[in-house]
Amino acid sequence: MTTIIQKLKVATMMFLVVMVGVGVTAKQKDKAYDIEGALCELDEAVANYSDFEQKRIVEIEQKKQELRHANFDNDRYLVMTQILEKYKKMNSDSALNYANRCIKLAERCRRDDWRKEALLYRANIFTYRGNLMLARQDLLTMGPIDLLPKPVQKKMASTLCSFYRAFMSNDIFRKSRLHADVLSSMNINWEAVPDMYLKNYPLAYYRAKSYVGLDCRHDFDKIKAIYEKEVKKPGVNNLGYILAQLYLAKGDTAAYRYYLVKTVDNHIRNVFKCADAMLELLSTDWLLDNPDRAYKYVTLYSSDISYFQDTRRSSKLVAIQNKIVQRFIEKQNRLRTSLIVVVGVLLVMFAYSVVLMVKLRHRMRKIDELNGRVERRNKTLANTIKEVEHMSAELKTSNERLQDELKLRDGNFMDTYLMCSDYIKMHRNFRNTIANLLKTNSVKQAIKQLSSREATDAELKEFYKKFDRAFLSTHPDFIERFNRILRPDCQYTLNEEKELSPELRIYALISLGINNSVNIAEFLHYSAQTIYNYRLRMRRQACIPESVFAEAVGHLYEDDKLKQYLTMGA
Q1: Interval 303-348: pLDDT, tens
Q2: Distance (Å, rounded) from C-alpha 173 to C-alpha 157?
Q3: CA nearest 277: which of 232, 251, 238?
Q4: Does the residue 413 lie in any domain?
Q5: Burial of 192 (0-12, 13-18, 19+ CB in 10 A)
């Protein structure tokens, strides 16, 4: 028995020596970069995230107060762009709202330079949200970049490069080969954009070069010098991310991890939500080796992603959550193994104590103390296992919810493109029919076919059904929220077919941020006067002042603001 115990002691000492040696080797490799220190700073930033967010909200409220007291259109436009910048990567819905307000103000003041700048703001927001086709639509309205004013050229160039990167990194577009058609249709020499328009703006220049796939390795020293000089500025975040990628390309893993962590830390302190740097950090195996830390980070990222509708980020987050769950399971298994080892050791010690009980009675108290410590450890381990199981259940629930949301968004996406495909097929058949009639000199029949509205009306009716279904699937409580700002005798209910009335479709579009009557008329194939009459009729049914009715619809899903409007009508 004594020999066995001695062997166990020797084995334990050898294990400790090996582990210390491995730890020393690892520390020597990362000696140049305090990665653990950077992670501790990141932990602090994550823990204090609400403070950073509240600070940003206070800054925004101050700007809103400044906007309320602005007496001139120039001042109003400037302050709204400042509010937009602060909202841009914090709350895309609010940023989009202020971008649309800037566009309206520019149109009212007939300032084409303002309008184009505001359109670029909106295109940038659409790009960050993953609404790339909407971003492309705004970019195409800008016209040739060479004809824009110099300040707008810089913003246009930067936005184009961001758009290019988002398009090339979108798996859905790439697999459908849609990105090649879209990018080529824009008739832009993408690789030439940084050197032609951003050469004098270092931060934007190197970011743009990396976005369009140009090799930045020969610019490494310049990028690092700029980063170290202006590391505290929010705009240098992207340079930190580029620097991390350059170190990764060089094979310097320690530097890559350090600068990636510092970039994420800067993003959090500047309230940049859903940044790709955080997504990449969560995807690294070395971070997942600490599932507790990864769980804190992914919890923060999951709450932030609710402000954006980017399926690319959502799908990647689901995969990361699955990995974290797996690591928790592995950790749980290791804990169980450790428990078995401890119990085994205890059994050996107990057997040894029984053999020596007669001679070593005076040591029984020490043995009892040892047993007590072991029991407390067992309780601690049991509590830990319960906590892990609880967190695993929460992550599973969150994963299922995100997967359901992703399926819903994918379904709406495919419905849209299938509808476009059906329309193209129908249009091609109609053209063939007309061509055949003309070939047979059946001109009257061809004119009759061209003059008929039955097919168009049927297509339009089907379009309305698909729009209603898609909108209600993503906004199931729209009718309930909309009825809150109507008088009780004027409230709406859905029919058995779950179809929206023309008035409800108009205000469904307004709730999505489309407030211009001309745009609504074009979308629903009504005249502008018809849209005006519908909107006038609905305003007269409101339980709040007519002057703020459309604005209230735009804030239907902001409960605090909606309460303010309802108070105005009380």
Answers
A1: 666 555 555 555 555 556 555 655 555 555 555 565 566 556 556 5
A2: 22
A3: 238
A4: no
A5: exposed
Q: Are residues 267 and 382 in the same domain?
A: no
End-to-end Cα, the chain, rounded Å: 87
Strands (DSSP E) found in 226-281: none
Cα separation, 387 vs 186, whole angstroms: 53
Instruction: Calculate mean pLDDT across residues 364-385.
Output: 78
How many other C-beta atoms can be found within 10 angstroms of the C-beta atom of residue 15?
10
Cα three-residue angle 120-239-153, rounded to 5 degrees: 25
- Total domains in the chain come to 4
Spatial distance between the Cα atoms of 73 and 368, rounded to a whole number of angstroms: 82
User: 209 and 291 share a domain?
Assistant: no
Enumerate the β-bridge partners of residue 486. 542
Angle between helix 291-304 and 311-355 (nearest 10): 150
Boundaries of domain holding 366: 317-403
Q: Cα(323)–Cα(295) distance, rounded to whole angstroms?
A: 11
pTM: 0.51
pLDDT, tens digit, 9 for 90 and up, residues 181-192: 777 778 888 898
| Widest CA span in the chain | 121
Q: Could you tell me if 168 and 92 lie in one domain? A: yes
CB 54 within 8 A of CB 240: no
Do 196 and 291 belong to one domain? Answer: no
| Residues 526 and 563 both lie in one domain | yes
Which structure tokens are listed for 24? 């020393």
Distance CA 157, CA 138 (A): 14
